[in-house]
Amino acid sequence: MVLVGDVLDVRALGLVAVEVCHRDAPVRWVATSELADPGPFLEGGEILLTTGLETGAWHDQWDGYVRRLADAGVAAVGFAIGLTHAETPAALAAACRRHQLNLFEVPRRTTFVAISRHVAHLLEEQESTATRESLQIQRKLISAAAKPDPVVAVITALAAALDGATCLMNPDGRVVTGPVGTRRNEFPLDEVAQDVKRLQAHGLRSAAAQSNPTLSVSVHPIGLRGRASAYLAALVPARASEAQRQAVTTAVALLGLIDEQDRSRATTRQHLRSRALELLAESDDRTAQLVLEVDQPAAELPKHIRFLRATGDESAIENAVASLERRGILAGVYVGELCAVVAPAQAKATGSQLAEGGLQVGVGNAVTPGDGATGYRTAGLALAQATEVSGVVLWDQVIDNGPLSLIDPEKAAAFAESWLHGLDSEQLEILRCFLRHHGSRLKVAEELGLHRNTVRNRLAAIEAALPGKLDDPQTRVSAWIALQSAPDDLRP
Fold it and tell me: pTM higher than 0.70 for the full model?
């Protein structure tokens, strides 16, 4: 931008600084006026040229005159001598000093047209320079976006263009890449992380900024739709050029396009992985292996696997799937649940990590990929026993050490179908909850959000359809075995 100091430095004009307290004040244009109050006709940022034609007899009026100009945002006053006044009035200089308004003297030989012409030339030159700088930066950013690691290349190129620093953060405020750039040591990571967390609730059309006299930091969400996948933070000098500001905008757009491409690839990958999980759950390991090789040619299923099935908040499941994928674990969403396949040695630790993320987890029996249906089914049975307290339940705990291991599966399924046939899905869920809470009707009411009397009435209806009383231990054991052994259409 053109500054007052740039105009004063034009030697051909012979301008003399009288009271110049802000050489860095930006100049938008030059205006000429002999009015006592030209403020209403100004937009701010002008150099106001005057001969003081109407001020020959002024004494106390100078202070109000200067105050009005300062309020109008005038960048500087150019006072011409040799016509109305032989020299710049001392009262004018004093008023400019009080109101922190730049004042310079225009010698008799310098015309106002010459000053206007020079300022116009400076503005034109500045605009041309800014355009060239902007185009150069845009080319560098676009070129960076075509490199093998486009995200790192773009934020590195942006940091160089800003002569500052840049950083890319996850929505939770953790650093993904950076800070990079000459001023990376000045980057306020903690403050930016807080800005990122605040911006999450405002979607993609929001931004944050913080500044001090020497620098400013802006934070921008990255993405074209849905939730932001990351946030770009850019540290720039306090007086960033228009080209630098445009560079930040361009970088945000490029990173959004890169993110959209990554999302498209990730969606395809997730579809393939979910299909592979579905095939494994049906014991079709050969087709599952072929599907995995489409995504990763070198992918190979372990000789033995364990299924993990987990339920919980949708966003928690989404984050957990992404975390598992980053660790190279086959995971996805299948039938509304998080579903993952791991080597047996990884199962317990992986299940615990998912439980720490707020999910309830069931870990199935160790099986070969060709017997995936058993692993998937046993993981579901384990999941049915998981609670907020237990978090993760292994098949070994529920089945191998329990009474069901002594019962023939086919006979147990036939028993379950006969014993539970009079109950609908809602009643089955209430019965499961009743057994899970050891017969506490109050806890059943709390978990299901029902009134205690409602729970009592519904349990009475369930009891009427069963061959015994629910307070009878034998009935409870039978109910538990029936629910654990139930056919697919009766299980949760």
Answer: no
